[in-house]
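One such given next:

>
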Amino acid sequence: MADKHDSASSSAPNSSHKRSVPAHPLARRPPGGKARPAGRPLPRGEHFMTPGATGLRRAVERGSAAPLVYLYGLPRWIAPVLLVVLLLVALAVPDWRGGLAALPVLAFVTWLAYMSWPSLGAGARILRVALGVFLVLLAAERFGLIF
């Protein structure tokens, strides 16, 4: 007669009795064994950081880990809706207030482009640069710096 552990391990091939611990502290279970607050679970994977990153990239990735986990825990619709509203305000308001609305969109898009840059192909990089240039020109025009 097989015990529970034998039947469980035989049904799951290549499984081990040890559980792997995520490499990044934000992906680990909080002390005390309590589960994370309600929201989406963290994505699978061992690393939030680019392997072998040094200098500025490493510092930005380390500083961005907590905000990325926070954004991931929000409902999926909040960030896109907020960005679209700010962009619509930036496009509709022809003075400095429109430029002010474009700045958070520019900052967010630039930050995400920087974070995802190593994994992007040439086409995706060109689109991100074009979007950044558009937002810089929009903000500059709204602040009266050009045109």
